[in-house]
Amino acid sequence: MDDLELTKLWKQYDQSLERANILNLQSWVLHLQTIELLKTEKAKSRLRSLGNCKKGMIIIGILWVAFLIFLLANSIAVSKLFFALSVAAVLGFSIYSVLAYIWHIVLIDEIDNSESLVEVQKKTATLKASTLNSTRILFLQTPFYSTFFWSWQWMSHDPKFWYIAFPVTLLLTAASIWLYRNIDIRNADKRWFRMLFSGKDWTAVIRAMKYLEEIEEYKKEVEI
Amino acid sequence: MHPTDKEQDFLQLILANKGIILKICQLYCPDKADREDLTQDIIYQLYRSAERYNKDYRFSTWMYRVALNTAISFYRADRRRTTLPLSDLHLTIEEADDPIGAERLAGLQQCIQGLKELDRALILLYFEEKTYQEMAEIMGLSETNVATRLSRIKEKIKRCMQINMKCI
């Protein structure tokens, strides 16, 4: 089979499609309901639904940040130093998270389907994949959830602090740094990764990351 | 409710280029029920993007970009995406004159649907007789890259067609 034969076959395919579908499309497009549909939000964009999900997360995030600020404002004292520092650290990560989601919404609005395929597909996949990047950064806040009840008094008078509380924090620190460094698409097939990121939402994120790699590969010049 | 002049113009444009929408939907959406959704999605996206149409590009370049981007996003969002068996594909190729011809057409459709999303877009543009320059503009690739990729894709399709023909 040569190129000419392939093109000829396509033309036949083209004609058969025309015959099979033309009337359906024509009647659908001409139907006045089409105009109504275009003017309403019924024909929802898939990206817009992603945006709505992120908007929901922003609202929850802002409430959480407000709560943390309230806690922090009421705990600025030497006696509550560790509590205040822990809350401040968690607050920092939470603000990062909210800002990241706001940035994603801006990116969603900037996606223009009339740009080139590689460009649009890259932006879309980057957006979906960004959830995983944000998650790995958020893992870094884990140790601070084990330090908010520390106190000078506990440290100097209770050996349990050094036997239990401190090692737990060290362990969480090591684990969160390890996760931060290893949550990567290259590890997507490993068992711990699949256990950590199971569920259809994560599957979509991981698929987006693989797609992103595919697009990067696609952009590279190839040789015959 | 009557469409305005602008809307009427838009409908005329869509009708004049309906073949593009039709073929893209066919190649990215094997499921007949979903295909209607995709058609609506593409027309909606074209309507939404119309105001941003950049006259530096040809109308067909703009239309292919919007329609293909919408179709690829739709395809990637659809978790049920599958390649239909040859017998199901026959439903869309109803009017082929002879059974062998119908098998070959269905085989071609199946081989193209087996390609990756971007490869599928590229081969569609090739079959639509776009120039390398236009294909490069639509895809966002260099002309050399387009030429090399096309040659590989055509080889893949030919191999796939040969396997399909042996099975008939």
Describe the structure.
The complex is a heterodimer of chains A (224) and B (168). Chain A is mainly alpha-helical and 224 residues long. Chain A has 2 domains: 14-43, no CATH class; 44-219. In chain A, 77% of the residues lie in helices and 0% in strands. In chain A, helix 3 packs antiparallel against helix 4. Chain A is elongated. The mean pLDDT of chain A is 84. Chain B is an all-alpha fold and 168 residues long. Chain B has 2 domains: 1-81, Rna Polymerase Sigma Factor, Chain: A (Orthogonal Bundle); 83-168, Winged helix-like DNA-binding domain superfamily/Winged helix DNA-binding domain (Arc Repressor Mutant, subunit A, Orthogonal Bundle). Helix content of chain B is 73%, strand content 0%. Chain B has helices at residues 5-16, 18-28, 32-49, 59-77, 86-89, 99-113, 117-127, 132-139, 143-167. In chain B, helix 2 runs parallel beside helix 4, helix 2 packs antiparallel against helix 7 (117-127) and helix 8 packs across helix 9. The longest helix of chain B has 25 residues, at 143-167. Chain B is globular. Classes of the chains: A mainly alpha (224), B mainly alpha (168). Chains A and B meet through helix 1, helix 2, helix 5 and helix 9 of A and helix 1, helix 2, helix 3, helix 4 and helix 6 of B.
